[in-house]
Design brief:
25% helix
Amino acid sequence: MWKLLRTRLAQGRRTLPFPAAGPPLPERFRGRPVLDTSKCLGESPPCVEACPTEAISTGSGLTLDLGRCVFCAECVAACPAGSIRLSTDPRMAASAREDLVLRGAEPNRARALGKEMRRLFGRSLRLREVCAGSCNGCELELQALSNVVFDLARFGIQFVASPRHADGLVVTGPVTENMRAALLDTYAAVPAPKIVIAVGACAISGGPFRGSPEVHDGVEGILPVDLYVPGCPPHPITLLDGMLRLLGRIGEDGGRAPA
């Protein structure tokens, strides 16, 4: 026991100073894609065929749907012109589905809830997680939010066991037919007003399972969604950044919003 205590004291403070400072992400981290439409070759560039989830389109210029993207980087490898690259920016959460469609410009990040909702949830938010057919990759990242590095509870956000004790739902997975009724029942058990957060490509668009007769291609159309957090799975900082922006705890410039 004493050895464990000495080791812990020697480690010092391990909690990230987010949002005052970003995490030290490695260069190999696959963050928000960046598009350079001036380099795009023709109407049918090779990145379109390379994308396994049909996230890339050239119908109205080169676009990339973060809600479908699984960050496999196949598009980057297939593009000889370098019109697509993956940055190390983890800030990708959005408030509207259309804001996840990148067109080369700076993306529209998640916006704060209305004043009354921020008053209710801004300092104390309780969430119930629903696994609607997930592979559990997103659950691992959600669980990491509670460790000493990210420490979600310091922002007043916690996961609870009962939907009746929750202020909203966090949904993962493509919403399989077997989980649809359970998801609706859980949502109905959450007292109003309530929010819904769709986490991961599967919950947003169905991910690699999109189009299967056994899934509903995500939560949209089943429940009203307040926050979309893309990724496969999303990094804990992507999750944390989106939640804090939704609650008005991070300003437009990325710094801590005034209390």
